[in-house]
Specification:
Number of strands: 10
Radius of gyration: 22 Å
Number of domains: 2
Oligomer: single chain
CATH topology of the largest domain: Rossmann fold
Order of helices and strands: EHEHEHEHHEHHEEEEE
Largest sheet: 5 strands, parallel
Number of helices: 7
């Protein structure tokens, strides 16, 4: 089981993730006199220079738990949205493991653009207006002679913040829908509907 840190003991910390955000977290934690050892799963070249990388996928909860037990980890800090969206904080808290990060529901503010939009709409927080559908996004172009810009995002977590931007220049032509599905490029559907 995990150590219960006291005021006098230095903490062993596991940082989960492999990006620049995690490197910054490790760098800052390294400067704390309350931290003795830092492990990073999976880490990167930068974190390897200042901490011990563990070759474990951030969403492989059983292997992370094993590594935490074998290294006597006192605190877990989660950086990337993938494990957060998968519920790592909820899972670890249910096992009484001290973990820093938002719950699965709170992580939806970042991992689900439609959830975030609904929250912002509910509480009158300014946000970019747009259309959304969880499977297929169809936008009808109704104005002529205008330049339209959209940033299209899928609902749910995607690696590397996958998104695409579309610019459409319209001439005096009838409007047409644009269809986009995961794995395809944006193409005008020239069938009139």
């Amino acid at each position: 089981m995990l150590n219960k840190p006291s005021e006098e003991t230095a903490l062993k910390v596991l940082v989960i993730g492999s990006g620049g955000r995690e490197h910054a977290l490790v760098w800052k934690l390294k400067s704390s006199p309350r931290v003795s050892d830092i492990f990073v799963a999976p880490g990167n070249g930068g974190t390897a220079a200042i901490a011990q990388n563990l070759d474990i996928d951030p969403t492989d909860f059983p292997r992370l738990l094993d590594a935490m037990n074998s290294n006597n980890i006192d605190l877990v800090v989660v950086g990337p949205e993938g494990p957060l969206a998968a519920g790592i904080v909820d899972e670890f808290q249910s096992r009484m493991i001290p973990v820093f990060g938002p719950s699965r529901v709170a992580a939806q503010l970042e991992s689900s653009k439609s959830f975030a939009r609904d929250i912002m709409e509910k509480y009158a927080i300014p946000w970019p207006k747009g259309n959304h559908s969880p499977i297929t996004l169809k936008l009808r172009l109704t104005s002529l002679n205008k330049v339209f810009r959209w940033s299209l995002k899928l609902t749910g977590w995607l690696p590397a913040k996958a998104y695409m931007c579309v610019r459409v220049w319209l001439k005096p032509k009838p409007p047409w829908p644009i269809s986009w599905t995961p794995g395809s490029s944006v193409m005008p559907d020239l069938k009139q509907s």
